[in-house]
Design a protein that fits this description.
Radius of gyration: 32 Å
Largest sheet: 6 strands, mixed
InterPro entries: DYW_dom (IPR032867), E_motif (IPR046848), PPR_At4g14850-like_plant (IPR046960), PPR_rpt (IPR002885), TPR-like_helical_dom_sf (IPR011990)
Protein name: DYW domain-containing protein
Bound molecules: zinc ion
Helix content: 55-70%
Strand content: under 5%
GO molecular function: RNA binding; zinc ion binding
Number of domains: 6
Strand order of the largest sheet: 2-1-3-4-5-6
Organism: Populus trichocarpa
Number of helices: 38
Number of strands: 6
PPR repeats: 196-226, 266-296, 297-331, 398-432
Length: 704
Amino acid sequence: MEVPLLRFQSLTPDQIQNHNNCSFPFLFPMSKCLEQRILFSGYGFSFNKTKWKKNPFWEIKCCSLDRGLQPRPKPKPAKVDIDVSVRSNFVRRPSVGLCSQIEKLVLFARYREALDLFEIFEIEGGFDVGISTYDALVNACIGLRSVRGVKRVFNYMIDNGFEFDQYMRNRVLLMHVKCGMMIDARRLFDEMPERNLVSWNTIISGLVDVGDFMEAFRLFLNMWEEFSDAGSFTFAVMIRASAGLELISIGRQLHACTLKMGIGDDIFVSCALIDMYSKCGSIEDARFVFEEMPEKTTVGWNTIIAGYALHGYSEEALDMYYEMRDSGVKMDHFTFSMIVRICARLASVEHAKQAHAALIRHGFGSDIVANTALVDFYSKWGRIEDARHVFDKMASKNVISWNALIGGYGNHGRGSEAVELFEQMIQERMNPNHITFLAVLSACSHSGLSERGWEIFQSMGRDNRIKPRAMHYACMIELMGREGLLDEALALIRGAPFKPTANMWAALLTACRVNENFELGKFAAEKLYGMEPDKLNNYIVLLNIYNSAGNLKEAADVVHTLKRKGLRMRPVCSWIEVKRRPHVFLSGDNRHPQRKEIYQKVDKLMLEISKYGYVPNQKTLLPDVDEQEERVRLYHSEKLAIAFGLISTPYWAPLQIVQGHRICGDCHEAIKLIARVTGREIVIRDAGRFHHFKHGHCSCEDYW
Ligand SMILES: [Zn+2]
Ligand SMILES: [Zn+2]
């Protein structure tokens, strides 16, 4: 097997710099990558020991890794004080009381008070400050992430002739890095008379933290030249850097190195590897590393669960979570917030409720991230009262928490409550961001609060210095579309201070469809063709417009264009979760084991709602699907999903359905009545929005 770092070493920093634009892969010919993939694809990693002896790592023994990585034991303050006063020419004043007070404050994480006390030194000057006090001040600055604090402490040290030793140089470097002062940190590092592994690790991990991965690699190679040594910390950092660059080949090479050096089992290295493999798209390798971990830590579990979630393996992620719970390892707020988000994706209220209960049981009931995820989840799925309950119980809220609840009210047609909450947010001096405005504006538009919507739209730039973006404009177009103000909507598009985007024209097109303005609709559709020539949906909407207007020739032209472009209407599906299992339905689907009952239920429902005036809409607008067969037309996937939901869940349970296509007019009408005759709440998330059906109404107010 090729020795990975040898390749790095044979390159000078300049060479890497010059190849910066083609980044690392040039170092690794394809065959090499393939070879490594075989070696690492999970099961049975091995390397050739005879070849191994020829490489520079051969002499490295594990014990040498520890050298230089341990922080130097701190010198006793009293001794240092004497040292400093002997060496220094400054007039020293005793400061033992103050110093120990600062150190005590820092020990109890009262950083701000410690820095306040330090001001006495700065004002009066000439105090006798020992290493342990400076050390404490460094911790205070890091704790507060205070750039001003760093400058104050560092200047004081320089002005008072403090003589830096290696330990304090590293500490000062760390303080700059942690406070994000990378330019100063780099200068300090370059000017260091001597650098040990701690210095290198500090600067390299700082670079990785700020996303300067290439520079991190460059320094890593320099370091390797100087030391031919690195510890698990360095490797964990460099693996993170290769994840940042999304270069799995480099990640694999670093993985190989860690195994050769006997640090492959290190917890930090393992977690970094799991993260790297899953970010680079190889979840199997991530899983392999995880399985090999001698001790599976909370971070390890979180990383692998996040890896599965990242690639859309929501169910696997959920399975891992239950495995984690059963293994007895401690779960933290990351675990819970991740699980709640996964549940949201799976539309699984059952799992989410369990995660919510576990969250409280494990004492994270006040965690802001997890609770915000819960607010988001409940409000998305129409459990707005639950969302409100969680929101109200939160001790501290951030802008995301507010946005989630405002968006939730808006999505479910409760615009005035959304506006109320928005006003409360302003009153509580929480700064809204552009997502807040999007949420409140779309709430206004969903609920027909056009005047209030206008006021808020205008206040964006005026009171909050947030420039309205295309999505805010699209919201306003929808708002005017609902009022039938199509000319005004067009004027708004034309008056926008930037080039109108596709979603603005799409909003106008929807407005034209609902208001049956075919001329303007055609105009908007043509604009859209220019921007999104291959987006099927645009053609379908236009096709619907022509069909409704009886312009059959134009409709045929659209169909012809579709065929010429090879765009096909794909069968679409709706899915519903029952007893923690998803059930997928295509329109006219025949595959479900309970198909007989499902179809009988649909027929029965249709009969029942016809008593309330439902007439199957013959001239209904086409949904975004191919409707060749009568069976497909009569049994749309959402109807089948609802029928199945009704026969498989208790009478009080709300139904939740997800689908990728826009709900058709006929289904929308039918579901409103189904909600009425069955007394069920039905929430459908379609391509565009949420439809929350209750008591014969839909939250979208028939505008979608
Ligand atoms: Zn339908
Ligand atoms: Zn609706």
